[in-house]
Amino acid sequence: MTRKIPFEAIENFRDFGDYAAGDRRLKRGLLYRSANQAEATEADLEAMRALGLSVIVDLRRPNERERSPSRRWRDFAATVIENDLGHEEEDPWHTFIKASDLSPGAFTAYMVGYYRDAPFVDRHVDLYSRYFHALSETDGAVLIHCAAGKDRTGILAALTHHLAGVHEDDILADFLLTNDPHRFERRAPQFAAVIEEMTGRRPTQEAVITALGVEAHYLETAFAAIHQKHGSLDAYLQDVLGVDAARRDAIAHRILD
Description:
Protein-Tyrosine Phosphatase, Chain A, two-stranded antiparallel sheet
């Protein structure tokens, strides 16, 4: 299947269903992931409406939502899951950029540290928990997104796949679909210009591509940190995110054929 769904001004939009999950299969047209919708065109909004979205999970920080508010279609009635935790804190990405030498290695090191910590950040725990709760109880399709739809979104999609029984090879393959050369080509000049405006320095093309993409060891770092702290992904899902056996069964009933 073609997982990527073309939009005029929404990036990295794709269906992360329709994977084998043991002897069952994730449904198609129910689980979506994307970047933010701040620049969505009217045509994009109509296309989103047609997906039958009943829940949208916005994983962005409060300052990100304020800077780039989501556009909604006419008669929008979906439930939006978001929070304001960390509103008073400086964005760690901005802190990093200002102090960084902007080398590819610096971006990689930042992302490894980010993935190591991300599963345990209070804001993420709250949003991830509420997502799984909604997934167990809501009819209709669900969209999860952050700013670029790659890191916070990638971890949550991977946890969903694990819970459903998707093979680890497919989990990683889906995660790596973010590395779209066409998206890199479109986004690289804009990204470099933003960094130059913030710092007075322009990163190299290699550094920009490193920042825009994902690597397998990022997700592996997040999962390893979960294993180290909680023993297993299943224990994390239950003890931290509140996905107990009854909720797992309810989710499986909804998202698996």
